[in-house]
Write a structure and sequence with these properties.
By secondary structure, this protein is α+β, with helices and mostly antiparallel strands. About 60% of the residues lie in helices and about 10% in strands.
Length: about 220
């Protein structure tokens, strides 16, 4: 097996890469990171001591950061679903949306989660309030940007959707996407119905108790 992926099923950025792998039916071995797999953790930390996952190992070559991993897969293990367009202008739009979902949707969620994990009620409240404010801005922008588009960048499922799926999944748990954003709600539902993401969600289901803000009884 040439491709190894180190990560955790409940991790949004691990899910982002899993979606890309599943979309193209790319063969790989998943190496779980957690207290029950100390050898996997030791291998991962030896290759990436910054303690961030996922990490892709391709015949001894380490590739890190989810967006870079997906671009690497397209270059070196390209499948039938191109997740980044060959046209430079279209690719730039996909990359922008990928960054938008990571920085303006997933990042506020992580801030709220970090506050909850601090154990300090004041910090938790402030972090959640900040996340809600930022997510509302992101939801409003996305409601307009996604109008008339089945997928984030248009007609085709891309890297941007790989980023959007887990980001919007956890964002809605953190601050519900309400009825004022029907376009965004419908897009999130399409992502949940996509087989590649549905598979990632199913694998992560046993770990929902880990969500410190409280996982809702849905999705």
């Amino acid at each position: 097996m040439s491709l190894l992926l180190y990560g955790h099923p409940f991790s949004s950025y691990t899910q982002k890469v899993l979606i890309a792998l599943y979309e193209n039916a790319t063969a790989f071995e998943f190496r779980m990171l957690g207290p029950d797999a100390p050898l996997n953790a030791a291998e991962w930390l030896q290759r990436w001591p910054l303690r961030r996952f996922p990490l892709l190992l391709d015949d001894g070559r380490s590739v890190v950061e989810s967006s870079i991993i997906i671009e690497y897969l397209q270059q070196r293990h390209r499948g039938p679903v191109p997740l980044l367009p060959d046209d430079a202008g279209a690719a730039l739009e996909v990359r922008f949306l990928d960054r938008f979902f990571d920085l303006h949707v997933m990042s506020p969620v992580q801030h709220a989660v970090g506050g909850a994990l601090s154990g300090d009620a004041g910090k938790a409240g402030d972090a959640l309030a900040s996340a809600v404010e930022r997510l509302e801005l992101a939801y409003g922008w996305l409601e307009d940007a996604l109008a008339g588009r089945p997928w984030a960048a248009g007609a085709d499922f891309t890297l941007a959707d790989c980023a959007a799926a887990p980001a919007l999944f956890y964002a809605d748990w953190t601050h519900r996407i309400d009825a004022r954003y029907p376009v965004l709600r419908d897009y999130r539902a399409r992502l949940l119905a996509r087989p590649s993401f549905a598979r990632a969600v199913a694998a992560a289901r046993p770990y929902r108790a880990l969500f410190p803000l409280g996982a809702p009884d849905r999705d």
